[in-house]
## 1
Amino acid sequence: MAKKSFREAINETLLQEMRRDPTVIVMGEDIAGGAGSPGEDDAWGGVLGVTKGLVAEFGRERVLDTPLTESAYVGAAAGAAATGLRPVAELMFVDFMGVCFDQIFNQAAKFRYMFGGKAVTPMVIRTMYGAGFRAASQHSQCLYPIFTHIPGLKVAIPSSAYEAKGLLTQAIRDDDPVMFFEHKAMYDEEEDVPDDPYTIPFGEANLTREGDDVTIVAIGRMVQFSNQVADKLEADGISCTVVDPRTTSPLDEDTILECAEETGRVVVVDEANPRCSMARDIAALVAERSFGALKAPVRQVTPPHTPVPFAPGLEDLYIPTPDKIEAAVREVAAA
Amino acid sequence: MQLNRDELVQAYRQMRTIREFEERVHTEFATGDIPGFVHLYAGEEASAVGVCLNLKDGDYIASTHRGHGHCIAKGCDVKGMMQEIYGRAGGLCGGKGGSMHIADLSQGMMGANGIVGGGPPLICGAALTTKTLKTGGVAVAFVGDGASNQGTTLESYNLAKVWKLPAIFVVEDNGYAESTSSAYAVAGSQSKRADAFGMPGYEVDGNDLVAMHEVAREAVERARDGGGPSLIHARLNRFYGHFEGDAMTYRGDGEVEKLRAEADCIQLFRKHVTEAGLLDAAQLDAVDAEVTSLIDEAVDEAKAAPPPAAEELLTDVYVSY
């Protein structure tokens, strides 16, 4: 076991799964980079270098640079999945899904149901999400609630490098279409990641901290912020459970509700915009199913209902931070 | 390449099966027993049949809103289709897809599609599968003149060419996207669009089964041989409205009657094969009788078949969840 970055964990997973199964292919814009150009081959390995080196081992038949044509290649991934391949398509920024939403939610997600259970569509769409890169409104969103809303899709949002490897391995081996969300600010974050392949089952939440006073349910990068808050508040006598659902579809409702009922106080932290978000979804779940056990109203820590701003000062205000999470936890703990 | 007698009979049987199927769905829809929307393929049979005669197991097609003809031509079970259109448990999709989503992947039929332009990207994927797995298979996207203007279709032309995919795009131009004429809505020329993407483009009389078969044969052989994608632009005719219930007030006086009298692909085929002495009328009449009986049975069975059980609402969303 060695320390690996979030980026290295994903790269290693793709490499191992492509070695293991010849039907696994990867495709995307600049996923190798430099196709047809006079300069270096594998020039980029994806815009942030996550797929670097794959083309050298597997060739351009299994590492497919695409034109800038998300509708066509995401649809092609769905068609290839329904006919015998296991494509991993990279949709560079999830914000770009506006031009290929049909292929994801009307085609891939619906084949199995519409065709009476006779279709299997084992595809993964890897995509970057999240604010903090000064990338403004069209390159910074957290659109996982939209995909979570669609029956037929699974949605995985790893909170660390270890989680990324286990969840991506599961996603590639899974027989349903999976949306796999990678926070762009996490690629360089390192932790111990086993060298051998392993899977993390979907729909099984992970408790990254366990405590008695407040339950924090956090998504993706917000798990780390919540862990920091839990560690800090422990010293102040507020002990927190942090629940990382790992996947928003399926969602481990049982674990969330158990933790909510044990502590009676719940904060939900979600980097997505607040309306129709995971924060609202989980708050509603707890309110409906565990109302009697609550000692305080459920608090949601989210950005405001605005696009992601460009100016650094404004973007910093937009993103949920450990300070905001801490304030919310202290508030419910005191209620 | 000349079709042999068996192939000619097969072509006639398939075209007649599609026509009889669609004429009966038209009649039965009017009784109110068929739920939802149906979009009929009557008049366009020579395209689906002419193309699919060139296809084998391991080849794929993707279809359109107007998908019944493509299904039958690719080998889907007619009785299963009729049950599907009636929303029955025994339908090809268990009654959960309906007319706009009839599919049978075991026959290489990747679905009618409720989304205009939904099929071409899927066919790029099926072609990528056959290419990657070296199965020798090809994939055909049928699109209407309406879908020919969708970005997905034009992007798929580009992707198929860039990736040298064994794909064929068949633009079935029946003159109308819903109620809007292709004369109004399509800029430039369909076959010159193919030129622009560097792939062969064919203009063909879609009422002529033999001509459809011949251009499709060339395109399919090219794809199988690693020569990449082709585009076929077939002009043909729609005998019914965009959907059942469409009053077709946008069509000219007597337009459909004239098409049925003068440009019915099945009658033109029948005339051709009998006058050329390839098949005799009695043989074709016998096919007609068999087809009528098959469709009668399909409708009777569909009407009598049970609907899906209530628990089916919740099944088949995921393989596992």
## 2
Amino acid sequence: MPPDGNAVEIRNLVKRFGEFVAVDHVTLDVGRGEIFGFLGPNGAGKSTTIRILCGLLAPTSGSAQVHGYDVAAQSEQVKQSIGYMSQKFSLYDDLTVEENLDFFSGIYGVPHELRAERKAFALRMAGLEDERASMTRLLAGGWKQRLALGCAILHQPPILFLDEPTSGVDPMARRQFWDLIYAMAEQGTTVFVSTHYMEEAEYCHRLALMYKGRTIALGAPSELKAEHGDGATMNDVFIASIERAEEEGL
Amino acid sequence: MNWRRFRAIFHKEALHIVRDWRSLMMALAVPMLMLILFGYALTRYVDRIPTVIYDQDGSPQSRELVERFRGSRYFSIVERQGDYREIIQRINHSKAILGVVIDKDFAKTVSSNSVARVQLLIDGSDSNTASIAAGYAEALIMAYSAELREQQIVRRGAGKMETPIDVRLRVLYNNELKSKNFIVPGLIAVILMIIAALLTSLTIAREWENGTMEQLLSTPVRPNELLLGKLAAYFLLGMADMAIALALGVGVFHVPLRGSLLLLTFASALYLFGALCWGIFLSAVTRTQLLAYQASLVSSFLPAFILSGFIFSISDMPLIIQQVTRIVPARYFVAVLKGIFLKGVGVSVLWMDLLFLFVYAAIVFMLASRKMRQKMA
Amino acid sequence: MWERILQIVRKEFRQTLREPRLRTMLIMPPLIQTIIFGFAVNLDVEHVKLGWMDLDRGVESVELRRHFQGSPTFTITHEAGSEAEAQALLDRGDVQAIVRIAPGFSRDIGSGKQAQAQVLLDGTNSNTAAIMGNYATAVIATRNRELLGERQREKLVDRTAAGPILLKIPGVEPERRVWFNPDLKSRNYFVPGIIVNIITLVTLMLTALSIVREKEIGTMEQIMVTPIRPMELILGKTIPFAIMGMFDLLLITGVALAVFHVPLRGSFALLVFAGALFLLSTLGAGLFMSTISETQQQAMMASFFFFQPTFMLSGFSFPIANMPTLVQWVTYLNPLRYFMDIVRGVFLKGVGIEVLWPQLLALAVMGTIILLSSALRFHKRLD
């Protein structure tokens, strides 16, 4: 077990692609068991940050630790401790639900004796028990997302990264998906989730607002709203923060 | 057909081609590589045949024969004094193709005015090289034999005797028998196929895989506009390759271009158009890049290489395969290429082949256009 | 480790074998290619369409014509009455060669002078032209020997008490013994070579796309965040295609034996073993290209770019011994060259490990290096 402390610690993280600065000196911490939201318009640097935290991209400068491991130097240990669901649906379309689960179970090295139980859990959680033999490409959008989540938690990772998991999914399915996230957090999993839906931001314990690669606001939803006066919605907070950032010459 | 929509598609395709510089480099480099290989390295011209000699006699007469093998540029003696085992060893290890065995009573036989035999042991695996090697060796021995006879006849006072029929071989179109002279023109047919079938078959399949096709379907673009827009971009690329091949072939490898450049350009355009339509047709049918690539490789590139008469002559194929070659457009194009490059003939001779290329292009265009319409409906 | 490899293997098999079109692709193209190319790839010159241009029309020209008609190689299909007609026949490709007999041919032979015959050859395929020239010369040489024999009989008689007898004169006769392929059929040489090419094409293509396709679909990103090691992924991707490649190898070898009656003189087990070593190289090369490519199109172009020169420099149809020395050195880096040697050695010569071990060793070394470098080249990062 890695040392205690925060699930995620980011210090002055910078990522450049040529001239373009995708992540610009981001610093933040995520505590264990927290549901941490990453809110921001498209292109704000949310996905890039998550990919760095998953060890998929190397940071240009700064550092980040996930589950106590450095993402640049110890990316393999990081990968043992996380589950990741990318923005684009990325399971095998031409395998069945069960085959996808079996595959990832094997790749994550879930012990044999636990596999059946984990698979049953993932199927139950995703509500796919009756669809286990269906070809994945035939599933509806919401189910696909839940299956992807199911595949990402088979090895019971302490930290889960979800990159816009609910984009393109209908409101009912989104609601169900968040129930799953809550259930996960209750069991002690840290959930790091990005979204551009304002109402989803409200579900998070804490939030970071990202804009042009920077965090322009950080705190619990209620704190953020309180800063902007009575009756402010998340939307107001968002717009006000962006305007302030623009004035500061971002 | 709306000109503006066509232009938009064309522009998009051109951007794809130019942006994906790796593919572009390969599209331009493959032809050059093939030309350079064929121009410099690849030839079936047989000389310096690795030969082991086993002279059991060692007499002046037998050594005279060995000297003739040594003096000929067709043979390269790897072992002067081998034995049977040596010959078998060398041939098994592919270090020699020919073994020459001279009997130990060679001189005695010749001196007693009898016919001596020289054994030629030949590795027949590459039958083409083998038969040419055997031909050279036999000719050399026969010439030696003729001299022996003549000496004997003259000694008996019978007077010199001339060969009754003198054969003169005259090779037309390619009098130095350089293989690059027929391979380089034929290569153009293969190169155009690579661009047309391999690159193009991927483009529509890619749009299906990436989902951009759905996006295009929601616009008022018509199937033919899409088809021609895509086609035009790759057409230019293909013609650029053709120009490179032509410049290298004529400029660097000095392949003669005896006929009309204009006719050559016209025929290439016709062939390229048909090939491009075929590529697009395949990609519309298969919808996945993997299958499109496989299908185009099997149905266009390999036939262009093997069934076109480019290297392997059609008249020596079995009848059924000869019939199959009739539907291979490259066959007609190769005939046109050889006609224009080497023979210097024009439309009066090549009109049938050109007509077929035209009919082929027209049919494949209609097929592709129909398939696009079906898929888009 | 084996667990994760097994998972990848199982997944690849499922994905490939479930899709009917992919299944067909594993069987039909190799089969069709083997059959068509087996029949088509042939450098023997057996049927030459010959034009006859006789400006003499005497006894001797008719006699020579009879000799050409008797040859299995030549078929006289056209007659030409004038130079222009002869030129047109060759231009149109109606005939491949024309025998032109000058006026006075029969008269010259009758009077013991040297007569002239000309053979016009279509040189557009230099290989065919050279062989046609040889055959035509041989036909005329036979006639020459007959004529010469008659003349010598007139002059070289000796009178003895028993009457005239023919004097003996010396000579040297070459005696051909062709090994491995006594009928000199080029099919026996090419069909084993076709096996090599088709196996290369199929395996290269399947693997070249396998990683880059997952990159394009996005599933590779999902795999990269798992604890899998690059070597595990590479092996997992190699094994299924190796098995499919072996299946194709057996399939085409069967066709070569059944349809083309190519002799298999050596050990079948050695052929299979060498095939397995060879697949290391092609699969490794395919995977390597897949790891360096960003799109499937690039991967396909790259695999084509790899296949083209390796195919041409394998000695399949152009003998390596004929290449410039520098290029010959380059061919030592070409795995196809070694497998080509092995396949032809096993099929035609019936030789075994004692002769082919250097080639086998080369394949093993190259395959391992290529496979390892593709594992090293594969990074679990997106940038």
